[in-house]
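Q: Here's a chain of 361 amino acids. Please give me its 3D structure as tokens.
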Amino acid sequence: MNARPFAILGGTSLALLLGCSPAEPTVSCPDSDVVFEAESVGANVVFLLDRSGSMHLPISATETRWTATRAALFSMFEQLEYRVEADLTMFPGGDAPLTCCSVSDPNCGNCGPADLPGPEQRCSALTYDDAEVALFTPERVQLLKNQVSQSDGDNYWGTPLAPALDGAVRAVSHQAQAWQSAIVLLTDGKPTACDVDGNGSANDIQHAVDVVAEGAEEGILTYVVGVVDGEPAADAAHLSALAAAGDTARYEGCEASDDCAYSVRIDTFEKDVNAALQSIARDTTSCSFVVDQRAFADGDPYVAIAMVDDKVYLDRDSEHEEGWDYLASGTLRLYGESCEMFKTQPHARVQVALGCDSQMR
């Protein structure tokens, strides 16, 4: 197996072992005290799917935003079978679907104020905090497909983004597995229909950004996929801010162009949403590891990337741009080129060595 080595970097580093034999080589040094084997882990994933009325707007003669998103989501489900523990929450929730309009009239022009539900259920985080992840067996996948399909003909009111994210963060944080945790948000609108304080501030996107940032502090990643053109559409700046706060910015400097999220456009809808979900599927399952916590009890360990007889080193990077970090969730995660390299190597391994002299580099 051939692989391109990285440039050697100084500082604390992580051992990524690349070799055709799973048992060789071993990252170590003559004076190492112990070498810990890191185990690639799955992920606790909660899919957060927008089912507001605008999701039923057409994108072609035969497809709507909803049907195209559903198809891409189902394809992702099948890719993740047996690789993650997951559940799905749809928003808005808590209210019955509207009876004053149907999916053929997604803008609900004939609905008056008296026809619309109040915000009490829709705008409470408690409505969305009951997700319970389970292994993505074929039976589990079919169950969630059926759950989504039950909303095919329903028109729900509003886009309660902040409470839905708040509930999802709470649900993920309560999962028993010490795996990488993630939320995958799919939406096509700005926060609406949660004017619970009388002045509209409850719809401020900053509420959603704050919730996602709090989740990131606990090691919960939030991936964001959103429709950014057409009417109505999500605000690209809002989506980008959510992705950046959720520690899933797509590339360095994306904040400057509001491009940190996965953007979906009407004229390329199916292509965009499929590409986004396939990228997220790879990312959530490939670059997170469990390591014995003793490896980090006395500060940063000595770690290195190795291919056969060569050792290459990566710095620990708290900015999550290139290298590795040990997250509050208790998982070790690769970032940047090291993550991409790991995803392309079927026999890649990770080890952490203690007690090595820094001069060994």
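Q: Can you summarize the key feature?
A: The chain has two domains: 15-32+302-360, 43-286.
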